[in-house]
Specification:
By secondary structure, this protein is of the alpha/beta class. Helix content is about 45%, strand content about 20%. About 30% of the residues are buried.
Length: about 140
């Protein structure tokens, strides 16, 4: 599966200087392609908008490409762990794939988020390419 085909056939939910977020109704997939770092406020606003979208549209799968994300503030990570993750699972999220180059800062951040997601029954897999991530979401 070619990732650009999935992304290009999706509805763009947000597109700004730090992120492009999309929703694919056929696949019940929400996805994020990070373009660069963001502030704590922008991070919270992004996930609040995506949760609002999930309240209106069935969302079972979450894809995120964090290779260009930048460092995430502790406050933002805690908001994701304590609010976004449990709320998204309540709304139907069942599987997450993360595209990452796994540098040391991201690995620490990811391990914390994976632990939180697993606690709520949302399996998370790290993959090196968008195609591998989508293969996990759609086929495994």
């Amino acid at each position: 599966m070619v990732a650009t085909d999935v992304i290009n056939s999706s509805q763009i939910v947000i597109d700004n200087h730090y992120v492009r977020a999309f929703y694919n109704p056929e696949k019940q997939l929400v996805g994020i392609e990070w373009k660069g770092p963001c502030t704590k406020e922008e991070y919270k606003e992004l996930f609040d908008k995506l949760l609002d979208n999930a309240r209106k549209n069935p969302t079972q799968l979450f894809y995120t490409d964090i290779r260009k994300q930048g460092v995430i503030a502790i406050e933002s990570r805690k908001h994701f762990e304590n609010y976004v993750t449990p709320e998204s699972v309540k709304l139907g999220l069942r599987k997450t794939a993360v595209v990452t180059d796994s540098n040391v800062f991201k690995r620490y951040y990811l391990n914390l988020l994976i632990k939180a997601s697993n606690k709520f029954g949302n399996p998370v897999k790290l993959r090196l390419t968008p195609e591998e991530a989508l293969d996990f979401l759609f086929n495994e």
